[in-house]
Amino acid sequence: MNSDIQVVEPGSPEEACPIGPVVEIVFSRWTTPILWTLNECGRLRFGELERRVMTITPKVLTDTLRKLERDGLVLRTSHPGVPPRVEYEISELGRSLAGVFEVLANWSGDNLEKVRRARIDYEEREPVRLRR
């Protein structure tokens, strides 16, 4: 059995930051928008999810959904028929992240403009360092 979750070794980065493994699971490039969309929209078919997330390729969406299902954050329901219909929804475990997403959405609304301004200020102060 292959598991990406490992025991924390003394002196490891995970020991210094215990949320590191969670960040790797939940906040990868495509995981966050998929979980956000399923939390906001409810149960969706693959094509609907693909349209809502946008710019994601079918292969990356498939791979990410499989990982989320493996980690217990997404539920996959297959309905027999021609063609077969598959739906995805956020699980209770995935839904337990809603508060985290809400805090991050609030932080984003309050602070992204500050981050943008800090970047501009930095680039004006350090233009040569950025041209490597």
- Uncertain residue segments: none
The count of β-strands is 3
Oligomerization category of the chains in this entry:
single chain
β-strand percent reads 5-15%
Helix-strand category: mainly alpha
What would the principal axes of the Cα set say about the shape?
globular
Radius of gyration: 19 Å
* Major sheet strand order: 1-3-2
Q: Characterize the biggest β-sheet.
A: 3 strands, antiparallel
The tally of helices reads: 7
Helix percentage range: 55-70%
Q: Termini distance?
A: 43 Å
What is the mean pLDDT? 88
Q: Helices and strands, in N-to-C order?
A: HHHEHHEEHH
Q: What would you say this structure looks like, in words?
A:
It contains seven helices and three strands; from the N terminus they run αααβααββαα. By secondary structure, it is mostly helical. Strands 1-3-2 form a three-stranded antiparallel sheet. The longest helix is centred in the C-terminal third of the chain and has 28 residues, at about 100-125. It starts with 12 loop residues before the first helix and ends in a 7-residue tail after the last helix. The model has no long low-confidence stretch (mean pLDDT about 90).
